[in-house]
């Protein structure tokens, strides 16, 4: 066991504070990572504040982790000391179910082990990336290509793969009209990736405040959802809408923007239940769906895709003592577009 510094929430809704945690000794197939940068995801805030249900405390959030390998176990074959690597939202799964065998560990039928706010197979709680180091089985570590900085790569481990996976699954590409609902930490990456895949991209945002950014990042069109004319003008337009919004929506209004056989895919997860009139999907044979992160293979594919095209996250790097301030700014929508913690300041 090794003692390392970290930032943790001691209890639900409590401010995060500097503390120390224990990391396990490196096992046969483990990789020890010196964390360089950790992104702040809205999911961190949901879990620290128990918005998604009862949580485990003390909690060290962080599942957008980028760093450098400093030690490997004797059985490790894919990584070596000095490699640039990342860790995303999960650190283990059953590895034997149908989904795991298919590379869909995010949908492990027996439940995967999340990077934090979870209990591992050893019975110990998991602690995330707001820390100096982390120890992870090599099967849940990905390589960060040289074509992208570690700071810009960190948010790709959640925001990047969470948007890349549904865009690929629903075949975003040339000839497809894709709308991105919400222009935040996830939304701005969805715009970049959908554009790089060759789709015609429209941003649907509450206001036009970020229009210049949206067009710069690859959107072809930008509309304000606060304007009722938007829903009249865009009715029946899109093949795919990716919603990154973590608040309840009028799904009927957004489903009406889809073409026949179109899909509205949710990657944002509201804390409250939502309602739906089924005629919104029956008419037009439309799909209301959800998507989680990607599996490990797909996450590596996403990183390679982004590095080849220079698609890093738009970030604001902060010191660890500003984490609580950053949380409030995320809730206020005051970030363009992802806070990243310089973990050397922990």
UniProtKB/TrEMBL annotation:
Name the UniProt record assigns to this protein: alcohol dehydrogenase (NADP(+))
Pfam annotation, one family: ADH_zinc_N
Lineage top rank: taxon: Bacteria
EC number of the protein: 1.1.1.2
Naturally occurring in which organism (per UniProt): Streptomyces omiyaensis
SMART domains recorded: PKS_ER
Cofactor: Zn(2+)
Domain (Enoyl reductase (ER)): residue spans on this chain: 14-341
Molecular-function GO terms, alphabetical: oxidoreductase activity
Catalytic activity line of the entry: a primary alcohol + NADP(+) = an aldehyde + NADPH + H(+)
CDD domains listed in its UniProt record: CAD1
Keywords assigned by UniProt, alphabetized: Metal-binding, Oxidoreductase, Zinc
């Amino acid at each position: 066991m090794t003692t390392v510094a970290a930032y943790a929430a001691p209890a639900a809704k409590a401010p995060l504070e500097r503390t120390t945690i224990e990391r396990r000794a490196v096992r046969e197939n483990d990789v020890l990572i010196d964390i360089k940068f950790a992104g702040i995801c809205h999911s961190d805030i949901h879990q620290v504040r128990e918005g998604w249900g009862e949580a485990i405390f003390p909690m060290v959030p962080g599942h957008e982790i980028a760093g450098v390998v400093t030690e490997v176990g004797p059985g490790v074959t894919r990584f070596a000391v000095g490699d640039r690597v990342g860790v995303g939202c999960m650190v283990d799964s059953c590895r034997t179910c149908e989904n795991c065998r298919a590379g869909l560990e995010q949908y492990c039928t027996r439940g995967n082990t999340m990077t934090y706010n979870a209990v591992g197979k050893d019975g110990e709680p998991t602690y995330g990336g707001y820390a100096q180091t982390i120890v992870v089985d090599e099967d849940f570590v990905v390589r960060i290509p040289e074509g992208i900085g570690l700071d810009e790569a960190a948010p790709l481990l959640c925001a990047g793969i969470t948007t890349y996976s549904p865009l690929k699954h629903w075949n975003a590409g040339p000839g497809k009209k894709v709308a991105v609902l919400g222009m935040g930490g996830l939304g701005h990456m969805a715009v970049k990736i959908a554009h790089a895949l060759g789709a015609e991209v429209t941003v649907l945002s509450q206001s036009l405040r970020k229009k210049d950014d949206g067009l710069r990042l690859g959107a072809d069109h930008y509309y304000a959802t606060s304007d009722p004319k938007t829903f009249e003008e865009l009715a029946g337009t899109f093949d795919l809408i990716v919603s990154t919004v973590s608040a309840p929506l009028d799904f009927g209004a957004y489903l009406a923007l889809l073409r026949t056989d179109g899909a509205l895919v949710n990657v944002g997860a509201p804390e409250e239940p939502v309602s739906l009139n089924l005629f919104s999907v029956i008419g037009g044979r439309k799909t209301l769906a959800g998507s989680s992160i990607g599996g490990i293979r797909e996450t590596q594919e996403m990183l390679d895709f982004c590095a080849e095209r220079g698609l890093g996250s738009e970030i604001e790097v902060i010191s660890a003592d500003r984490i609580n301030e950053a949380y409030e700014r995320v809730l206020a929508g005051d970030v363009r577009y992802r806070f990243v913690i310089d973990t050397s300041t922990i």
